[in-house]
Design a protein that fits this description.
- With 499 residues, this protein is α/β, with parallel strands linked by helices.
- Helices cover 38% and strands 13% of the residues.
- The protein is globular and about 80 Å long.
């Protein structure tokens, strides 16, 4: 849509102008800091930070109907910086001019209804948000678009010549960080720290392909994260994990898009999110609270935080009664949901603060944590794939959480569910093959359901002339091979001959 074709009352507001107002706020001591430089922890006490908009009261001067119409209309504009998460510029990072926005095609991933045959297993209407269709094939691109746009803005306004962006990762963060850093050219270099042997080949290839320096360290993600934290404390680097509050800000776009996909009617909706470092859970809770604060939605949806029993510190905390909750990191065991295999999530203090506010506004039953098994994760991933959906292991984890929530009465008939599939299924194809081969029982405790196994079939073509690479068959041999192979396939499939 061209700007001149937009409704006259919206036309002056469709191209957002940068404005001040964002401040870092420490969750521990309450101190605020201006956003003129990158902070990852409070300079005064070392507490975790959130970005808050001190000019938010100005946004409340306009109605929720205005914002809904503006964002819906803005989606029709053919303007690159506004095509992605910055459709919601005023609610995300209003200080960043459009000229500094880094857009690679992230955001506005499709929400797809689960086919009836599979939805019947849950007894309610279910939708999948396919965040694996982001540029680096995971939801991490949302946060990276905001973090790298901020970095791009600071480079231009502060005259930074060279920047090193660094992150720890279970795979998806490194892919997104390397890709978005590469988009800023040679002045921004990236380095990623991965736990050796704990990242799939597809995920390892992504940061290497984008030119990052990749370090494989002993241990698990939590160990890599501690190294990155020390680097950010002692050296001038741009930390790109979700400890960076700009990452959380960008990931709030998931909540805005979810509301938009359901015409801003979320009262009967339950969101299911797989939880690792808790940045996504933080962002979705924060984004939903913004939507209600500014009148875009009337009722807050239910939010289910899902964790495997192999990495479940968030579940353990919220499963206790309110007055007895104590946070304790856990020692993780191998999980097929690799992106969520984190025993000491960096964003946990943010989750506690936001969950308290969320339940205060929405009700105690509107936020809950769910624990699932590794077998339930794999079974749900493959059942979804069998139903025409491409969900990753984390998507399988969220589906397993929905099934568990249904059994516990946390969701009921008449509710609708939105399940987050955080990455592309092809990143985790090795787990599917291992599941079919029965190779996940020892390390993961996953028992293969024979009904879900699907393996390639071989045909008995003994005595039939067969094609060979680099050699051309004679017409007679070719015809004999084609006829024999077709008959063998027909017998295997039980086909009936045409009459």
């Amino acid at each position: 849509m061209k700007l001149d074709d937009a409704p006259p009352d919206l036309r002056p507001h469709l191209i957002p102008k940068p404005r001040p107002g964002l401040k870092y706020r420490c969750l521990a001591c309450g101190r605020t800091e201006p956003p003129e430089r990158l902070h990852y922890t409070c300079p005064a006490c070392g507490g975790l930070l959130l970005l808050e908009d001190e000019a938010g009261a100005d946004l409340q001067e306009r109605s929720g109907e205005f914002w809904r119409r503006l964002f819906d209309c803005r989606r029709l504009l053919n303007l690159q910086p506004l095509r992605g998460i910055f459709t919601f510029h005023e609610f995300l990072a209003p200080l960043i001019p459009l000229e500094d926005v880094v857009y690679l095609g992230e955001g506005h991933t499709p929400v797809v209804a689960v086919p009836p045959s599979f939805a019947a297993d849950f007894g309610l209407e279910v939708f999948i948000k396919h965040d694996g269709l982001n540029p680096s094939a995971s939801f991490k691109d949302r946060g990276m678009a905001a973090a790298l746009s901020c970095l791009n803005h600071l480079r231009r306004t502060r005259g930074l010549k060279e920047v090193l962006a660094v992150c720890a990762s279970t795979g998806d963060t490194s892919a997104a960080a390397a890709l978005y850093a590469a988009a800023l050219g040679p002045a921004v270099k990236s380095a990623v720290l991965l736990p050796r042997g704990k990242v799939t080949p597809a995920q390892l290839g992504q940061p290497l392909g984008a030119g990052a320096r990749v370090f494989e360290l002993p241990g698990v993600f939590d160990d890599c994260m501690k190294v990155v934290e020390r680097l950010s404390e002692r050296y001038e680097v741009a930390l790109l994990n979700s400890k960076n509050p700009w990452r959380v800000l960008g990931q709030e776009s998931y909540a805005f898009e979810a509301a938009q996909a359901f015409d801003y009617e979320m009262g009967d909706l339950a969101l299911f999110l797989p939880v690792g470092n808790a940045g996504n859970l933080t962002a979705v809770l924060s984004g939903l609270l913004k939507l209600r604060r500014y009148g875009l939605i009337e009722r807050l949806p239910k939010v289910g935080a899902v964790q495997s029993a192999h990495a479940d510190p968030v579940f353990r905390y919220f499963s206790r009664p309110g007055g007895t909750r104590v946070y304790e990191p856990v020692t993780v065991r191998p999980s097929v949901a690799q992106a969520a295999m984190i025993g000491d999530p960096v964003s946990f203090p943010r989750v506690v603060r936001l969950a308290e506010e969320y339940t205060r506004q929405a009700g105690e039953d509107r936020f809950f944590a769910i624990q699932v098994t590794e077998s339930e994760i794999m079974d749900n991933m493959i059942r979804a794939n069998r139903s025409g959906l491409t969900v990753c292991t984390q998507g399988g984890e969220a589906l397993a959480g929905l099934a568990a929530a249904k059994k516990l009465g946390l969701v009921r008939p008449g509710d609708r569910a939105l399940v987050d599939s955080t990455a592309h299924a092809l990143k985790f194809a090795d787990f599917q093959a291992a599941y079919w081969a029965g190779g996940l029982e020892r390390d993961y405790g996953v028992r293969t359901d024979p009904a879900l196994v699907n393996q390639p079939l071989s045909l008995d073509l003994t005595g039939v002339p067969q094609p060979e690479a680099g050699r051309t068959q004679s017409p007679a041999d070719r015809a004999a091979y084609v006829a024999a192979a077709a008959e063998a396939v027909a017998r295997a499939l039980g086909l009936s001959a045409r009459v």
